Amino acid sequence: MTGNDAAARGALGLVRHAAVAGEFYPAPPERLRTMVRELLDEVRWLPGDAMRPAPGLPAGLLVPHAGLVYSGVIAAAAWSQLDGRRGGAERVRRPMTVVILGTNHRAGWLEGVAAAGCIAWRTPLGDVPVDAELGDAIVELGSPFGVDAQAHDGEHSIEVQLPLLQEIAPDARIVPLAVSAGIGHAAIEAGRRLGEVLAGRRAAGDPVILAISSDMAHYPSDDASDEVTEALLPSIRDVDPAGLAAREIAIRGARIPGLVCGMCGVQPAVMGLAALRTMGATTGVRIAASTSADADGPRDRTVGYLSVAFWP
Fold it and tell me: In what helix (H) or strand (E) does residue 185 lie, and over which residues does it extend?
């Protein structure tokens, strides 16, 4: 991993403050709390099984990370799978730990997987504690895992998840990881090693899940965005990291008008699927999907959103 190691280690013990409040979600606490609760309530109107969380704790989730006004209800449908009040995770003791693999949008120097080195992440709704013991165990795996606080500066892909998690599981802890490790064999092997650590914690009875933060296609038409999601979904459902990498490369090469990528978080998704497979996940269950056009964005330039739960 490259970056300013001294600066990263200097951030140890600090709280990571909200960077995108007022941009990706409301900054006033009461407005944010109201919005989050309204999004969770809107899940009931989604088609399919979004409102029917299975009992117990999933191995993982795939969750979109756009502004909450755009992808919030799809993200809420994913996090609702952890809501013991509605049957999800009903026999799980608290606090759970959520390891969040974030998409790296800003840290161009990052070549690996970066923990933030903080004790908590702050949102307008309060502080979310970091599971330092599990975070240390992950960093101790060695390359490509390390600590780089600067890789998280200004990044939204993990932060936008936290207000929803705070409402669903207020005692939850997190391990936030910025991922920029490629989509090849090395990334899959790193995911396998991460999965071994998480599987060990789950086997010991600790409620640990892995969340992959990724949006889908950027920026084709609404219809094309839906088609891209459907093309990538089989590899996601099959928990197949190599298959997902190959399909996403093929989609980017298909000359779809306006398309920049098939999945903006393909790197955390590839690593995450490899980890989930090692954790015993055998299937991904589609929860909900939409595009930014469904939230009154333009139909000729969209972003796709998908939420999936992964189960043994």
Answer: helix 185-203
Q: Which two tokens stand for residue 306?
A: 């998908």
**Number of compact structural domains in the chain:** 1
Of 211, 210, 208, nearest to 200 by C-alpha is 208
Given a contact cutoff of 8 angstroms between Cβ atoms, the answer to whether 217 and 232 are in contact is no
Give pLDDT tens digits for 73-115: 999 999 999 986 555 555 455 689 999 999 999 998 999 999 9
The residue behind tokens 């307008």 is 124
- For residue 232, give Cα distances in angstroms to 18, 262, 283, 304: 32, 8, 14, 12
Choose among 172, 181, 179, 174: nearest CA to 157: 179
289: β partners: 306
Distance between CA 118 and CA 260 in Å, rounded? 33
Domain hosting 94: range is 5-311
Sign of the C-alpha dihedral, residues 266, 142, 162, 283?
positive
Spatial contact of 61 and 68, defined as CB atoms under 8 Å apart: no
Looking at residue 125, which CATH number applies to its domain? 3.40.830.10
In the predicted model, is pLDDT for residue 143 greater than 70?
A: yes
Q: How does pLDDT run across 162-194, given as a tens digit for each residue?
A: 999 999 999 999 999 999 999 999 999 999 999
Taking CA 178 as the corner, what is the angle to CA 286 and CA 199, rounded to the nearest 5 degrees? 60
Q: Which helix (H) or strand (E) holds 283?
A: strand 283-291
**245-300 pLDDT, tens digit each:** 999 999 999 999 999 999 999 999 999 999 999 999 999 999 999 999 999 999 99
Tell the residue number behind the tokens 């690996």, with chain if given. 112
> What radius of gyration, in Å, describes the C-alpha atoms of the chain?
18
Dist CA 88 CA 96 (whole Å): 13
Separation of alpha carbons 143 and 139, rounded Å: 8
CA gap 13, 252 in Å, rounded: 41
Distance CA 199, CA 29 (A): 36
